[in-house]
């Protein structure tokens, strides 16, 4: 296996932690951004206790300048970013007729504009080196829509539009660009959905349970494999059968 430098945005979150662990266990050098210092130090300690050393940089993915300097710091410390997972994401759920501009723009900036902010500083290097793996962590709700998530569904659908354009532009340069669209995973984000609403959602999942973050990390690792070199522009749905569109 070739050891590479991987940047996983939002690596301290539910799905992010599982992706960081998996890439580190594969032997890659892993970096992530964070916003909350105290929470991140505690997280880093837990990772260290498991033998995983993660390089962390304070940066808000919704800010293009912070992202450019984050990439610079990571590349100086760990070497060129060859694997990028655009995973950072937030929700600000509300029915659209009650949604504020802040709820709209925070979600679009953090979930979708971040793809520009983080990918733009790494793509040039990947193109020069003629190797790269980029994965967007989108969502089932970008595919099927969701009551109360016009902002989130728009941003998550946009992430796949980004994937398929970037995939075309960079295919000949050894860079694959794919999307993973998780369904409802047992993370803090999903547990924040009111219990009675969540129960109704779980009842719609053919596999009858929430997903596990490791089940998403497994798919991300699959795209990173050297043998996955011919898979680009794909959108892999991992949702317990909750949405089977094709
Ligand atoms: N379909 C149809 N009607 C629905 C509905 C649905 N899915 N959900 C709610 N409603 C109805 C309610 O029954 C209620 O109807 P009545 O007024 O007739 O009683 C009405 O909508 C309530 O509307 P309000 O605007 O008053 O809603 P609210 O302020 O109480 O909250 C909500 C609405 C914020 C959307 C809340 O229902 C909610 O949090 N829903 C969950 C949204 C969700 O799935 N979020 C996913 C978060 S996790 C994630 O995003 C990760 C991922 O990628 C999967």
| CATH class categorisation | Alpha Beta
SSE order, one letter for each helix or strand:
EHEHEHEHEHHEHHHE
Query: What is the CATH architecture annotation?
Result: 3-Layer(aba) Sandwich
- Cα-atom radius of gyration: 17 Å
Structural class: alpha/beta
> What percent of residues adopt helix (DSSP H or I)?
40-55%
Name the overall outline. globular
CATH topology: Rossmann fold
Word description of this protein:
The chain has 246 residues and is α/β, with parallel strands linked by helices. The chain has one domain (5-234): NAD(P)-binding Rossmann-like Domain (Rossmann fold, 3-Layer(aba) Sandwich). Helix content is 49%, strand content 16%. The protein contains 9 helices and 7 strands, in the order βαβαβαβαβααβαααβ. The chain has a 7-stranded parallel sheet, with helices on both faces. Helix 1 (14-25) links the parallel strand 1 (5-8) and strand 2 (29-34). The mean pLDDT is 97. It binds acetoacetyl-coenzyme A.
């Amino acid at each position: 296996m070739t050891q590479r430098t991987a940047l996983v945005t939002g690596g301290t979150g539910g799905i992010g932690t599982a992706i960081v662990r998996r890439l580190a266990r594969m032997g890659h050098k892993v970096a992530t951004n964070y916003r909350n210092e105290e929470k991140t130090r505690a997280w880093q300690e837990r990772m260290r206790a498991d033998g995983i050393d993660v390089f962390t940089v304070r940066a808000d993915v919704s800010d293009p300048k912070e992202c450019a300097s984050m990439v610079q710091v990571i590349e100086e410390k760990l070497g060129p970013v060859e694997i990028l997972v655009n995973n950072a994401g937030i929700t600000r759920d509300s029915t659209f007729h009650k949604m504020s501009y802040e709820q709209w723009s925070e979600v679009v900036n953090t979930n979708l504009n971040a793809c520009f902010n983080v990918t733009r500083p790494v793509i040039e290097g990947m193109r020069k080196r003629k190797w790269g793996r980029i994965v967007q962590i989108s969502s089932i709700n970008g595919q099927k829509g969701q009551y109360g998530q016009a902002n989130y569904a728009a941003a998550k659908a946009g992430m796949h539009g980004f994937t398929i354009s970037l995939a075309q532009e960079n295919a000949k340069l050894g860079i694959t660009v794919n999307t993973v669209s998780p369904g409802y995973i047992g993370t803090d984000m999903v547990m924040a959905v009111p219990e009675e609403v969540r129960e109704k959602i779980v009842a719609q999942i053919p596999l009858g349970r929430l997903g596990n973050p490791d089940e998403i990390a497994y798919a991300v690792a699959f795209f990173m494999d050297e043998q996955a070199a011919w898979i680009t522009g794909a959108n892999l749905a991992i949702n317990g059968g909750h949405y089977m569109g094709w």
